[in-house]
Amino acid sequence: MRGATYDGRMAQRDFYIDRLRSVMTVMVILHHTAITYGAPGGWFWTELKPSAAISSLLLTLFVTTNQAYFMGFFFMLAGYFTPASLERKGYWRFVCDRFLRLGLPLLTFGLLLGPLTAAIVTVAEGDGFWPTFVALWQRKQFINGPLWFAQALLIFSLVYCVWRATLGSPLAQSNRAAKPVPAGQWWLLSALAVGVAALAIRQFVPTGENIFGLQLGYFASYIFLFAVGIAAWRYDWLRQLTWKNARTGVIALGIAWPCLLVAVVVAHALAGHVKSNFSGGLSWAAIFYALWEPFVAWGLIAVWLLVFRARMNQPSAFWEWLNRRAYAVYIIHPPVLVGIALLLHGWVAPALIKFGVVGVLASIATWLLADPLVRMPGVRSVV
Question: Buried b / exposed e across 25-55, counting CB within 10 Å, b at 16+?
């Protein structure tokens, strides 16, 4: 297939990609629900702090695994659709569209939904609702929340435009030509390179620290996967991907992921010591975590792609309904999730039970609330 040009079948819609984005949106909601009930991470409100409890350890494994791949997966899928969008619209329309679809939701969240979510928490804690808004606005505190993704993707899109205009092929002369999926050794080498790059970044910006609202400690994989998405579109890698292609990545996943269990146990045994610091520096934990993430991520992403392409690539009215609302769900889920968690705060139940119940309720409620949003004139052109 090397050098082959695309026929009409290659322009068909890949239903499974839209469904993957919807499923990853649910994973984002569950990720933040897990933080609410004992997993580590930044969120608007937490009912339980991370601890050595079994529930906290299990939720920690869940969010750590998510963090390794799911936002990078979002960037990869976004990168996959970026070249076609740019070539279809041209630079000016593409940039305007990116500011509309990414910049406007970012501003809306930072100025309204973020303060709203913070205010819901302060009301539950016995303080006023409006004073929180006023205080945040007076301090000029911009809360990007999960819309940091829109902020980063906007930056990535603009950088791609600059690269394409200066070093890439002209839009009118661009051709898609299928090339083989990279061999297994490239999966391993790229994982190693991304892990080393992440470790280097974390010497200056550990995970958990924000620079302009972005956790740069995770950006080595985000940048790489966005570029992989662009290449996957250009060379038809998603359609060509097979279990044989992904075998090396899946084996690496099977070997690497269980090691996290050992690392978490050891880290908790060494709690309070520098040796158990996963976020940055050159401790054993920081080196392990930086290298562990991409080896797990490549395999998980391949598994999701292959399973969904095989089983979830047929038209479905229900999935179409879910997919159309997924972006709106991503934007509005924080106040919904926090509100439901606070309403059930007085319910005495095991942490894992509350995680499951609140996560399901928040997912359902957010999709239902997103439904009228995508029907509203003006709003539907953005989300």
Answer: bbbbbbbbbbbbbbbbbebbbbbbebeeeeb
Q: Which two tokens stand for residue 69?
A: 């791949």
Distance CA 274, CA 278 (A): 9
Q: Kindly report, residue by residue over 40-75, the tens digit of the pLDDT.
A: 999 999 999 988 889 998 999 999 999 999 999 999
Parallel, antiparallel, or unpaired for β 4-5 and 177-178?
Answer: antiparallel
Q: Which amino acid does the sequence have at 16?
A: Y
Give the DSSP per-residue string, 305-318: HHHHHHHS-S--HH
Whole-angstrom CA distances from 300 to 40, 144, 162, 207, 307 are 21, 27, 31, 21, 11
Rounded Cα gap, residues 142 and 106, in angstroms? 10
Token pair 């972006």 is at which residue? Answer: 327
Does the global pTM surpass 0.90?
A: yes
* C-alpha gyration radius of the chain: 21
Cα separations in angstroms, 205 against 69, 198, 209, 264, 280: 19, 10, 6, 22, 7
DSSP 5: E
Report residue 271 CA to chain centroid gap: 28
225-280: pLDDT as tens digits = 999 999 999 999 999 999 999 999 999 999 999 998 888 778 777 765 444 678 88
What stretch of H or E contains 193? helix 184-201
Q: How far apart are alpha carbons 347 and 123 in whole angstroms? A: 18
Query: What are the beta bridge partners of residue 211?
Result: 214
Read off the tokens for 267.
């880290």
Which residues are registered as beta bridge partners of 48? 37
Q: Which residue has the tokens 């040796």?
A: 275
Phi, psi of 155 (to 5 degrees): -65, -45
Q: Going along the chain, which residue ranges are E strands?
A: 4-5, 177-178
Structure tokens at 120: 């819901």
Q: What are the residues whose beta carbons fall under 8 Å from the beta carbon of 76, sequence distance 6 or more?
A: 225, 226, 228, 229, 232, 301
